[in-house]
UniProtKB/TrEMBL annotation:
UniProt record similarity statement: Belongs to the D-isomer specific 2-hydroxyacid dehydrogenase family.
Catalytic activity: (R)-2-hydroxyglutarate + NAD(+) = 2-oxoglutarate + NADH + H(+); (2R)-3-phosphoglycerate + NAD(+) = 3-phosphooxypyruvate + NADH + H(+)
Organism, as annotated: Paenibacillus gyeongsangnamensis
Protein name, UniProt field: D-3-phosphoglycerate dehydrogenase
Keyword Lipoprotein part of the UniProt annotation: no
Function recorded in the entry: Catalyzes the reversible oxidation of 3-phospho-D-glycerate to 3-phosphonooxypyruvate, the first step of the phosphorylated L-serine biosynthesis pathway. Also catalyzes the reversible oxidation of 2-hydroxyglutarate to 2-oxoglutarate.
InterPro entries (UniProt xref): ACT-like_dom_sf, ACT_dom, ASB_dom_sf, D-2-hydroxyacid_DH, D-isomer_2_OHA_DH_cat_dom, D-isomer_DH_CS, D-isomer_DH_CS1, D-isomer_DH_NAD-bd
Pfam family, one: ACT
Domain of life the protein comes from: Bacteria
Keywords for this protein: Amino-acid biosynthesis, NAD, Oxidoreductase, Serine biosynthesis
ACT domain: residues covered: 455-527
Pathway it works in: Amino-acid biosynthesis; L-serine biosynthesis; L-serine from 3-phospho-D-glycerate: step 1/3
Top-level class of the enzyme under EC nomenclature: oxidoreductase
Gene Ontology MF annotations: phosphoglycerate dehydrogenase activity
Amino acid sequence: MFKVLVMDGISDMGIQLLYDAPDVEVDKKNGLSEDELIAIIAEYDALLVRSATKVTERIMAAAPKLKVVGRAGVGVDNINLEAATNRGIVVINAPDGNTIATCELTFAMMMSIARSIPQAYKKTVGGEWDRKTFVGVELRSKVLGILGMGRIGGEVAKRAKAFGMEVMGYDPFLTEERAEQMGVKLSSVNDICAKADFITVHTPLTNETRHMISRPQFEIMKKGVRIINCARGGIIDERALVEAIDTGIVAGAAFDVFEQEPPQADHPFLNNPKIIVTPHLGASTVEAQENVAIDVSEEVLHILRNEPFKNAVNMPPVPANVLNALQPYFNLGEKLGAFLGQSIEGAVSEIVVSFSGDLADVDTTPLTRYIVKGILANQLEGVNIVNAMHLAKSRNVNVVTQKSASSKTFTNLVSLTLKTKNEQRLVAGTLLAGYGERIVQIDQYPVDIAPSGNLLLISHNDKPGIIGKVGTLLGNNDVNIATMQVGRKVVGGQAIMVLTTDKPASKEVLQQLEQLPELTQVRELSL
Ligand SMILES: NC(=O)c1ccc[n+]([C@@H]2O[C@H](COP(=O)([O-])OP(=O)(O)OC[C@H]3O[C@@H](n4cnc5c(N)ncnc54)[C@H](O)[C@@H]3O)[C@@H](O)[C@H]2O)c1
Ligand SMILES: O=C(O)[C@H](O)COP(=O)(O)O
């Protein structure tokens, strides 16, 4: 008999499948602290949660029988995925079940701030009949900017079209063809900020999306813009938003999520008449809760019964002989992927992975998963080696593997080429005896770089004095250069410079670098 612990008020209708299963015993609990959960978790084979329960390493360490953690929802930021992977616990989520609920809340929020419904309600029930203050705006003919055109963003776009809105969308995985099919104008973040009347975010919270809307973005927005966040707290800089309201740029904002949840009683959103808030209710509809609970229950049963499953967000088992041969390359592969994923802009259409030398004799599929994970992790939430290939495929990214038994220069070489509509970039790496992981080629330039820490990848025209200018600029801004590599093919031609720095350069420093006329591209990477 398998024992399943269901937390966080997950829908009873949704988990009926578990109640009906002859080999499963279900316990439901709510609001347990970490210690209370630790005291009872040892007897359970499966744990089901929403976002309220934080599934920590301590909890997993106290759960020797735990085979699966099921998240009845999308975001798995409340589950320690690394600890689960290390302990062989499968983590599954339910990515589709609450899409419509969250999309509809986004629309409810958009309409509420267009017409000041919560503010008008408050006055009316308070006994005031105020028909002058609340003159709203129509959605028709307004420009809606959507940052993050995945499941929820795509559904929001569809509904916005029905309201007669003009829709602009930004997503690193959105191609022009797909945008056209959806009736959405593919745009940059800056374009959206400059032109939109309403801006809504539907990305996960990642290093790249944290504060993707902050002071510089507010500064270029149209006066009177309205902002909605029903995705994750932190995508929009809360402090900068309050400033933008105070300076008259933003006319209204609607937030379902906060940088810290629940927010402190003195949080500036809670007494600002131009900001409306809800307590993370995006997925809270009867239908969504039933959907996600059904999806998760089905998957939990598959995993407990050792049957195939589809929504795992962490690691599958790899045969021991393959693992032994490939394990030393997993970290290098992921770093190479992260290097190119952060070096290139625009929707990736093809990933070409080439293995040469001894690696050509092994089934390199698990290593390819690490590489693809490294590429996608910059843009997507919850990417891991289980779902990396699936995510690439679902975004029409073609993954091509090539092998060659001989390697001209190294015993083993992993090369990776990323293609977008406008660009193609290459990086290659190897394991050097005595030196460990090295990046040995970037585009056409031979280099020798340890793939870790903060990197600045600069393309420039080869002219005297440029290295000095970059060094001085960084030094003046207290960014210490640890190592520097310069690569060029011909004197006076195109060249690259790769710097490792002791701390990341700020956005302002990057902007200053971009203004140096000899530099053609500046990318900051974190490996
Ligand atoms: N408020 C709620 O209760 C609630 C409910 C469901 C989902 N969510 C959150 O909403 C978000 C979106 O959910 P989804 O189901 O649409 O996920 P999704 O994975 O289908 O879509 C996310 C999209 O964001 C894009 N993206 C990643 N980085 C980006 C960047 N830097 N700029 C622009 N786009 C970027 C991805 O390419 C992807 O297409 C998730 O963070 C999820 O946790 C919140
Ligand atoms: O990531 C999600 O699915 C949403 O944030 C919903 O979270 P919830 O299940 O706690 O409502």
